[in-house]
Design a protein that fits this description.
- The protein is mainly beta and 143 residues long.
- It has a single domain, classed as Immunoglobulin-like (Sandwich), CATH 2.60.40.
- The protein has 1 helix and 8 strands.
- The strands form 2 sheets. It has a 4-stranded antiparallel beta sheet, with no helix packed on it. It has a 4-stranded antiparallel beta sheet with strand order 5-4-7-8, covered by helices on one side.
- A hairpin with a 3-residue loop joins β1 and β2.
- The relative contact order is 0.25.
Length: 143
């Protein structure tokens, strides 16, 4: 199990789009695309029934893990730091084509999320930020 998390209360149901949040990060010159990471230590935080379906490294600071629960039809995203320590700015962002989304943003010592959306009948946009490194995936895992 990952260690404890420190930071502000999670914010749900924000009206700003996932793309707008990530566009701001990219405009600030902070975009870093990275290759997937094979580690799978984050998905357990999404709850029972969730299976890892994708992951992506966030530079050299950690990994974003996307899971799917076939029974509930929900996708989950968690952003996990590779080396927990002093709180850093972190974001976990997941959304659907129709604008429904979940975002967890703040200063955390080990992970951001989990965040969830119903993934049935839509494509998923997801991404994560740790400090000044980011990864994003658009229009994936359409169901």
């Amino acid at each position: 199990m990952i260690g404890t998390r420190d930071g502000p209360q999670r914010r749900r149901g924000l009206r700003s789009s996932v793309s707008a949040v990530l566009a701001g990060v990219m405009a600030a010159g902070l975009l870093v695309l990275a290759a997937p990471d094979a580690r799978a230590d984050g998905p357990g935080l999404c709850g029972s029934g969730h299976k890892l379906i994708d992951s992506a490294a966030i530079g050299n600071l950690g990994t974003a893990y996307l899971t799917w629960n076939a029974e509930s039809g929900r996708n989950c995203l968690i952003v996990v730091r590779g080396h927990p320590g002093a709180a850093l700015s972190m974001n976990a962002l997941i959304g659907r084509e129709d604008g429904i989304q979940d975002i967890d943003s703040g200063y955390f010592t080990s992970y951001a999320g989990p965040v969830y959306v119903d993934g049935r009948g839509t494509c998923i946009d997801w991404g994560g930020v740790i400090h000044d490194q980011e990864v994003s995936r658009w229009h994936t895992h359409c169901g």
